[in-house]
Amino acid sequence: MKTMEILPGVVLRCYRDTRFKQGCLSLQLIRPVKEQESAMNALLPAVLLGGSRRCPDLRRITQHLDMLYGASVSPIARRVGDYKTVGLYCGFMDDRFALPGDQVLGPMIDFMGELLLDPALENGSFLSRILDTEKKNLIATIESERNDKRVYASNQMIAHMCKGDSFGLPRLGTTEQVEAITGQQLYDYYQRVLRECPIQILYVGSAQPEEIAEKLSGLLASLDRNPMELPPQTAFDRPGGENITETMDVSQAKLCMGFTTPITNRDPEFPAMQLCNTVFGSGMTSKLFVNVREKLSLCYSVGSAYYGGKGIIAVAAGIDGENQETTKAEILRQLEDCQKGQITAQELEAARQTLLSSLRSIHDSPGAIEGYYATAALSGMAMDPETYMEKIRCVTAEDVVAAANTVKLHTQYVLKGG
Fold first, then answer.
1. Is 262 exposed, middle or buried (0-12, 13-18, 19+ CB in 10 A)?
2. What is the pLDDT of residues 114-137, one digit of tens each?
3. DSSP 52
4. Which of 16, 38, 96, 417 could form a disulfide with 173 if both were Cys (CB 3.0 to 4.6 A apart)?
């Protein structure tokens, strides 16, 4: 991986790899998460992808991409810790496999710049037909998350747990916030994003980094920019103790428990914490799955997720309502077993192999490589997959126990029928 600042506030990372017939390029503008901007951050990349001045509709965009050997462009709206990104992701054939005399990379960079910097406008704002379509699409996505009760319950738990912290804000904004966005308001926000936001670009492919830097510098040099300095990522540290119960027309209750740890992916103990979470509740060999679901049959589903950027572990279980307290007590008992060192060699090795397999798969595609390095750079994690795997191999049972003893229950949320 080669990293260079090609312009003030513009960082390019190049992962040169000749194994693939496809390459990829992502460009992300980074902002701190703010409540009043969540919906616009989610909407903006989709509107930009709706059309440029030269290709103002999907038909002409598709025709142009077809001429580039079936290249693709998709919107990026990631949230990583305290940051939200707005941008575009491009996938395309590597120039080595194009017909003699044809190029894909250069025209692809130009087209990404066209979508990003020269959008289709009417009267100084985004086209109403594109805006209206993408607002409907975003609202449908927000509503679909509400209709998926597993996702809804997990989101509600995080929202209650992280009240007062940016991590508790809705990732896509709310339906009401989306409905209120006008073309002029979004265009003004777009201009501010271009002017203020640090830009992170990541390329995976066979081209030389200097070639990519030269093409992108020419594309972005004319922008009038005054990039902000991003505040550092922060660990979650709000006081806890909240227990929330919500009733809804559901056939299966959802139990969500939020735990905190001071260990984030910026700490040397992170590999141990990651392994601890895998032993505890992530995957089919975890204590929660094997004991709470399989042996005791207390739930239909159960698992844990570790948000390393914030130091949060979220447990979610689908249960019968009458099993709520029993399931909660058993989840806590499995955590206590981890804290007491009651972890078998088989449990530890199964968890280790699960993580190692996941990390090895990062190198299976350009998209996976881009996803890992782009997210790692945003979150502040300074480990490539090889270093990460080596550290996972070195984690001992004692390290896992020490990590487990930093985990504390913070919030409980239950969604049940009523």
1. middle
2. 999 999 999 999 999 999 999 999
3. B
4. 38
